[in-house]
Amino acid sequence: MDNLFELAETCLHNAPVDEKLALTHQAWQRLQNGELSLDQGKPVAAITQVRFPEKPEWLAPRFVPKRKLTAPGGVAAFFHAIAHIEFVAIYLAWDILYRFRGLPDEFYQDWLRIADEEAQHFELIRAHLQALDTAYGDLPAHGGLWDLASMTANNLPARLALVPRCMEAHGLDVTPGIIARFKKLGDTVSISILDRILADEIGHVERGSYWFSKVCRQQGREPEAEYRRLLAQYYQGGKPKGPFNREMRIIAGFSNAELDWLETQSP
Asked: What does the alpha-carbon distance between residue 89 and residue 267 come to, in Å, rounded to a whole number?
């Protein structure tokens, strides 16, 4: 298979977990080697055709049990939740490059690289879970991230605003505090995994910011005003809750004006 979009369809629609991971890594390497076509002739399938593994069971967020890190099984439950986020993030990266066509080659290169990095994150966490006598799928998870993808299947600026610039950006806000909690526990393995994910996620959010601004301007819209409008339209409560990590969000492409708005108007 020598076409990027056909590979994307395979990963989104029917690839088992290990095959999906292998295809993702191979696709990124092959694209760098000039071995994949970006011909966009084949029609895009509806997002309802995307398929996930039977496990884990998906529940509404309020029904997913919560455990403290210090409780029995708490670390495993935490990393199972993170594994699920990273696994869905592989889908999100594949889906955005598959679903939205007619963009510069750089767009597809960026999101395939991100898919590859999300797959690396998932593999790191899955190995860590195994050391904790837990497998991905053993615990329930929620589908909030994919709900946002479904809501924005026909709106690229909304997808960019809600996924990298809301949900992934939230990771920049909360992960440093979580790392500090693992430092108190003396858990160096967990710290190293979270440090790696955090470093990569800054770049993922930055790419979301870059393409959001570029697409908005191509559509004749002012990016900061459009960000506020899309959050009011799609985001429950109208915007994310703080506190916000200004330093990391600035690196990741947020403006001071956006952060002032988020902070002063945050519920």
From this structure: 27
